[in-house]
Design a protein that fits this description.
2 copies of one chain form a homodimer.
Chain A (H helix, E strand, L loop, with lengths): L5 H8 L3 H8 L9 H14 L5 H8 L4 E6 L6 H15 L3 E6 L4 H13 L4 E4 L7 H9 L3 E4 L10 E4 L1 H14 L5 E5 L5 H16 L7 E3 L5 H13 L6 E4 L2 H13 L9 E3 L16 E3 L2 H16 L9 E4 L2 E3 L13
Parallel strand pairs in A: 1-2, 1-3, 3-4, 4-5, 5-11, 6-7, 6-8, 8-9
Antiparallel strand pairs in A: 10-12
Helix pairs in contact in A: 1-2, 1-3, 2-3, 5-12, 8-9, 10-11
The first copy, chain A, binds a DNA duplex through helix 2 and helix 4.
DNA sequence: TTGAAAGCGCTAACAC
DNA sequence: GTGTTAGCGCTTTCAA
């Protein structure tokens, strides 16, 4: 693969490999005469020398590789995070390895192990579950790790997320202002912090409005299908509601679909709010009211936090960054015609 | 990072490191007694031994890493391809590094160089341009490389794509059957094979129907914005058409937007076909008629082709796989009320 | 300022 | 069958 080695450059430049190494390393260059540096650089350039990162890594035990662990790249939420992280990392000379765990904890564990064996310098994890053995292992070993999007119970790693408390507040405020009182919460899968945080926020928000926050169901995963199934079950049970606060856009889409199957239209009969504002939410039919989360920025910030750590500036373990969110009203939420009850 | 080394395992098991290495390597295990194998394996397990992939790679000059080069992960086209490739690769024990070139040839070149320095075993490239210096370099070095989605002029690498000739035929057939004669082609950026192939196909298809295939414009990139800009310019020039065959879904979306700005609605006034059938195309407002391309399958096949190569079964350089496509009529194409001209 | 030498953790050719 | 030895390409003490 890599043809030209450092030895070749050194021989050609008439210096010892050690010297050539120093000349080419910005950090060690000061101990080398300007003439030598220039000569070595010139030869390296002419020969097309490309340092072998593996060998360097073996010696320095730094690989300049960061692993990003995500649950499902086809969920439009994650490409934004990936993009933000990739940008920051590659600018800093790091390479990003992507692992898609397919939402499976076992896959996640083995992938993380494989990455560790590869000697990645650190992890950005977007798959955190509330109880997460993989993260516990990582914490035990002390591998630099930053959580993004989801956090875990242990709280041993810095976390870059969004202000879900506020996001859900905005949804509930908006719906109650439109006259809704019977609001159903369509939560995310248990064992994710996003489900917990948003569902807690929902309950508190409802109580602050003097309403019961107990009308609540949960999707088995953050997918349209799970959202549809949960709402179908709710309808079958005869739950009564005029609005739904979904914990995620895909769940909201599934909810709308389940309602449509029963001839219940949105927003005429039921108002729905989503969460995240993934691409296309604004142009679906009907367009979806949702909460915009700065996904890209989250990816960037996670990468920056990790880079600082790798650079010898470990973050306070308690670091919890909650980026501001924005309510995106798109007319999918309507005033209640006949307030229930 | 990796704490337990092979030496530790060997010492603990009372054998030489070389023996331990053989015992743990399925390929070399036959030259070792069953008892030794078992003992070494047991010790390795107990100590939690994880082989250092870097060191192994340095020695064997195989990294079991494959790089996937894509232009923009936030374009919904690519996560599908990534997913397919990732699945196949990780099942085969390979790790996937993702590089997002942000549609920039220079970035692409430097990223590929960085990956080469990392000693990746091969590349899957989804960013090919028709004239592509990076690919020429890769070909010169002989690095195993498979093209997916886009191919290049040189044709030195196997290519996994879709049957664009047929896909465009289906669009033109459909529109002409509805009475359209003045059909505009909204092509992709020059210097991509997809733009060339689809635009060639369009011209031929139109001629086969006895129509002129010369009504054609092109987007500067495969984005909504570029599509909108191109169509705005076309309208300003006073181009007359009743239908648009777009080279890509995002271009089609941009086209619809530009038309809407002028009060031209779709499909009432103008029919549009997209290409790729990215997620959500079916649920936009209006839903989009488009051509479904088996993106995920393309990723899988590209990965399989590369793996076979890395496994010593190099593909015929002329390998060009064109997977079948499917026309997705969604009512966004309407019969012409008053055929133009 | 530069050269010499050792070694990161592993594997593979060769010897016993 | 197993031990010995050499070395992948690089960096980094230690001497000179």
């Amino acid at each position: 693969m890599t043809r030209v080695r450092l030895v070749d450059v050194a021989r050609e430049a008439g210096v010892h490999p050690g010297t050539a190494s120093r000349a080419l390393n910005p950090a060690a260059r000061d101990g080398v005469s300007r003439r030598t540096v220039r000569r070595v650089e010139l030869v390296a350039q002419r020969l097309g020398y490309v340092p072998n990162t593996l060998a360097r890594g073996l010696r320095t035990s730094r690989s300049f590789v960061v692993a990003l662990v995500i649950p499902d790249i086809t969920n439009p939420l994650f490409p934004q995070i990936v993009r933000g992280a990739e940008q920051v990392l590659s600018e800093a000379g790091y390479t990003l390895v992507l692992t898609d765990t397919n939402n499976d904890p076992a896959t996640e564990g083995s992938q993380v192990a494989a990455m560790s064996a590869r000697g990645v310098d650190g992890f950005i994890v977007a798959t955190a579950r509330w109880e997460d053995a993989t993260l516990d292992d990582l914490a035990a070993v002390g591998t630099p790790t930053v959580l993004v999007n989801r956090r875990n119970a242990a709280g041993l790693f810095p976390y870059i997320g969004a202000d879900d408390r506020r996001g859900v507040d905005l949804c509930v405020d908006h719906l109650t202002a439109l006259g809704h009182c019977a609001i159903l919460h369509l939560g995310g899968p248990a064992n994710t912090s996003t489900a917990r945080d948003r569902s807690d926020a929902f309950r508190q928000s409802m109580r602050a409005h003097g309403l019961s926050g107990d009308l609540s169901i949960a999707g088995a995963s953050y997918t349209e299908q799970a959202g549809a199934e949960a709402v179908r079950a709710a309808l079958q049970q005869g739950m009564d509601f005029t609005a739904i606060v979904a914990a995620n856009d895909l769940l909201a889409l599934g909810a709308a679909q389940a309602l449509a199957e029963r001839g219940i239209t949105c927003p005429a009969d039921v108002s729905i709010t989503g969460y995240n504002d993934i691409d296309f939410m604004s142009r679906l039919s009907p367009p979806f009211t949702t909460v915009r989360v700065p996904l890209r920025r989250m990816g960037e910030l996670a990468a920056q936090t990790l880079l600082a750590w790798l650079d010898g500036r470990p973050p306070d373990a308690a670091t919890q960054v909650l980026l501001p969110v924005k309510f995106m009203e798109r007319g999918t939420t309507a005033r209640v015609a006949v307030p229930v009850r």
